[in-house]
Fold this protein.
Amino acid sequence: MLKGQSEIRMIWLMVLIIIAVGAWFLELKVLTYICGLAFVVSVMHYVDAIQTSMQDMTQQVQVKFQLSSKVPLYISSIIAVVGLSMHWRWLVGLGLTSWVFFFLRWLRRLERYLLNIKFQLQQNQYSVSAQSSLTPQNTMMRSTLDSSVAAQTSSGSLGFIDQLKQWLLQGNPVLKAAVLVLVIGIILLLRFVTEHWQFSLALKLTIVATVSVVVTILGYLLRQKNRSFALALQGLGLAGLFLTLFFAFYNDVISSFLIASLCFIVIIGITLWLSLKQQSIELALMAMVIAAIAPFTVPIRAITTSELVGYYLVINIAIAILTTLRPWKILNQIAFLMTVAVAGSYAFIHGYRDERAVLTVLVLAHTAIFIWLSLRFSQLLAKQDLEQFKLKPALDIALIFGAPIIGYIFLYLMYFNEKVWQAGLSCAFALLYAVLYQFVKRNQSIQFISNSYLSLMLIFMVLIPPILLHEQWSVVGWVIEGLIIFIYALYYDSAISRYLAMALLLVAGLFSLYYLVELPEFPRTMYWILSLSYFAVVILSNSYKDFQKQLTTSIVIFFSALMLSATCMLLILLLDHFHGPNQYIGTLLIITITYVIMNEWLLFNKALWSWVIPKWVGLIPLYIFVLILLFDRSQNGAIVWQSTFERWGVAGSGLLLMVLWLRPMAALRLEKEWVSLGGLISLGFMSLSLIPSMPYISVVVLPLLFCGWCFLQKNSQDWSSFWQTRTGLALVMLWIICSQLFSQHAFQAYLFPILNPFDVVTIITFVGFGWMLSLQLKVGMDKGIIAVLSVLSLLWLSSYVLLRALHYYFATPYNQVALWQDSLVQLSFTLLWVSLAFISMSWASHKQLRPMWILGGSILVIVTLKLVLFDLSHIGTLTRVISFLGAGLVMLIIAYVAPIPEQKNGLESRDS
């Protein structure tokens, strides 16, 4: 497992490097930067994973270690990002060089530590070896256990993915790769000889076919000596024959379709004989896959839809013959997937109306084959093990239910506007499965199959009434029928009925989009019934405890899609119904109150996760709607409400949305990230109504009050966990950045530095952000990231407080590139940052807080970089001289009065 994860990581990193280099030479610099950032983030994540595993090993072998701090890696990354944003290539080079240096130093310390662990493990092994030699039965027990596990693995039924992994990854993967490369080589050779060789095309293809026959015969002769190698040769030879036949037919070397068909049948017959003779599913699999992709290797012309579907029919007939004699279900599964994905999609894109009659026959023939395959496969398995027979993998069930349903869907689309044909086909399928049910129900060994046939008969019968309805009323018929069947499934706990109802509800939603485009008027009635039915399904399913027990994860995901769709439809319907100045707020309040009523009713009936998750997803359109409304009401950096009702209506909606997120409180323990995200956004919407002239201040007033209240509730873990989230941290960081950059009212009511509304809110927000970072330590966030965020947020906000003061009193640039060339601003920055470093390092030295001292030292590093990068370019000015002298003097004082605290022990400071 760990080895696989490590290989995946290495492959991911190599892919990033390749894409970045390729994008650089193609002059896609943005893609290169994105790949570089992803590479750094991936490596840092890899570093954290390694360090965590080493800490676990430390506890086992009791080896003390101290890795280098990861703070220099973060700082180097930030320097590179700054250089990219400022288009300073030398700064990018400096950041990348520093990052590589610190990363290699980290790897060197890791290597030294691993050597210590290896030595300690050897010592432990020597101490245990004496005891293990006294109990030789341990070796026998271990061998018995391994053999039993291997027996269970080999005897257990494998799903499609497991079988595919077993075939691809076990045995000789080099041999399989060689076969794949040689097949590609044959395709390229055929293309080359077709276009370039001077011999006649018939002679060229004859040579290739002869070589393929020789390779096949050679593989068959070697079957007793090396089975896997022999099968690979036979598969390679048969693949060459398939490909040569196609090139010959489509280049008119074999002009007769009948002769080409006979040759293809001969090759298929040889494949069947070899597979059955050697009991080799691998050979059949290789040959069938190559046969399936062969039509797409022809360079001359595209194959027609009828030809491709007919060709796949021949392949499926061959597979049906094989699996009629042997229970090789993986062939059934691959044939079904290839037919649907390749032939079906090709027919959907390239099919023409004049081919409809032929395609109808072909689709019916494919459907009949897969119906037979599902029945025959079940009979073969039942004969092998009558007691343990049951279909577990999803693809086994898909073969029983999916084949007829997908075949019917293709026919339904081919005769989309012809109700009689659609209803007739549905009736024909229902009669077919009624006959199959009567034929199979007597055999008790395959009772599951008989029940499935009965369910399919009922499914096709259920489809008839909605088909006969006209236009949008057919959608109404689909959704009402789905609602009724879903209620039936809940009362009788019928899984088949439940999935049938889900399919009907989904079909109703898809067809409603079609009629929305086709009909000249907006179909209000259809969408009212559709949205109310979707709400009804979710509410009824969560209203009773017996119903709630039937809800699985897949059904809850389906409910989430229903709630999302129902909310969007209700939003559009109410906007279409209401008119006037209060149209938007009235719609928002009605939907929000509706959600509150539903939420309270279902909480009364003790619904939890099966309602909470669909509720969260259903609220997403409301937040998008409010955001659009806020952008529409924004003018010159302020929010201008059209009426008092609109202003306080948004506030009321925000309060109700907050209630929806916090009730029930158990949802906070279920998924605190989503609750925190939705709750904070709701509070922000509510808070925006307080001071609309200063939205950046207004948006955080209620969140800050709520944060202070949660801080006082120290005995309540729930309220602390509300702020102990990455999403909440991201929202606060977003405000910290955007408020300073984009606020147009930062100087409103400005008296003195700090003694003004914007600075006060900024400082309080920073305090709250620091508390949230301290909470992140309890959930295991890397201390290096917390340190970097603390330093950057402190410098960012304090620098902007200073910038506003300088701009107000001295008219210096504000939020302009020119501020980096202003000597007064740079001098002020230097003195401010050095002062912050002095305060933090002095306090840390006094309290013996080594991590805090390192934070102050990080600020000094940033000051030094600023002096070198900016101040040194204007060394002749007096303010630049004062910057250097002032910074150097404070550094000397720090070095004297605030030495670095001593380490208490290696384990305590390893993450500092």
Notes: The radius of gyration is 36 Å. Residues 1-125 form one domain. Strands lie at 634-635, 638-639.
